[in-house]
Amino acid sequence: MSRPDAAASAAIDAQSIRPVFFCYLDILGDQLRACTAGRSLALSGTGDPDLDGFTFDGIDPTVVDVSAVRAKEGGSDAVTAKLSGLVTLDAELLALIGDPSNWQGRTGRLWRMIRDESGVQRGAIQHYYTGWMTGLTIVGDPEQGQTLNLTIESYLAAYSQASNRTYLDQDQFDPDDLSARASIAIANGTSGAPLVSNTGGPADWSRAAFARALRHF
């Protein structure tokens, strides 16, 4: 995430500001570009290829809402883009979304423009989030009708996959740690007898190994 430049930072300190948020969703066949300026904005000269030469529709009714970005240790939380999914009005979008290859793993980006109370832009447009669309749910709402909730994961999520390791793998890293066998023995109702080692005889438990095993229960 980039930071606001000096001019934008100074404007943020003002008593009244009017920010504009921009959203880009790279849905194959129907790329969505929307902004909260209250009117459509054609952008140029920003140096960002996803902005320059494109028009962002003002309060596009296709885009209902985009959740806030919450930073945490290890990266940002996932962002949700809520899109209109009315069967009669959004049939084309629904047809595209129905094929995961049209959106899954493709880019979603967010920017912010700082404007003063007179609506004059202060500083450069700030890019503050890029991620990949990973999940989709269809939700019915009595007020907004049917909506599509797209989950956008930050790029760190792609490098933070689950290790698929469990406590049963513990002895691969510490041969003296027999807590996994103790867990299995307790689950099987074994009591009053020593655990069996790989050789078929009683396991030789050190004091430290017992202590490590007990920490798991």
Question: Explain this structure to me?
Answer:
By secondary structure, the chain is α+β, with helices and mostly antiparallel strands. It is 16% helix and 29% strand. It contains five helices and eleven strands, in the order H-E-E-E-E-E-E-E-E-H-E-E-E-H-H-H. The strands form two sheets. It has a nine-stranded mixed β-sheet with strand order 3-4-2-1-9-10-11-8-5, with no helix packed on it. A two-stranded antiparallel sheet has the order 6-7. Helix 4 packs across helix 5 (207-214). The longest helix has 9 residues, at 179-187. The chain is extended. The protein starts with 5 loop residues before the first helix and ends with a helix.
Give keywords:
217 residues, alpha+beta, nine-stranded mixed β-sheet, two-stranded antiparallel ribbon, 5 helices, 11 strands, extended
Break the fold down into its secondary structure elements and pairings.
Layout: H1 6-12, E1 20-25, E2 32-35, E3 41-42, E4 55-58, E5 63-66, E6 71-72, E7 75-76, E8 79-84, H2 91-97, E9 107-113, E10 126-141, E11 145-154, H3 170-173, H4 179-187, H5 207-214
Helix pairs in contact: 4-5
Based on secondary structure, the structural category is alpha+beta
The low-pLDDT segments are 192-205
The amount of helix comes to 10-25%
Q: What general outline do the C-alpha atoms trace?
A: extended
Which percent range describes the beta-strand content? 25-35%
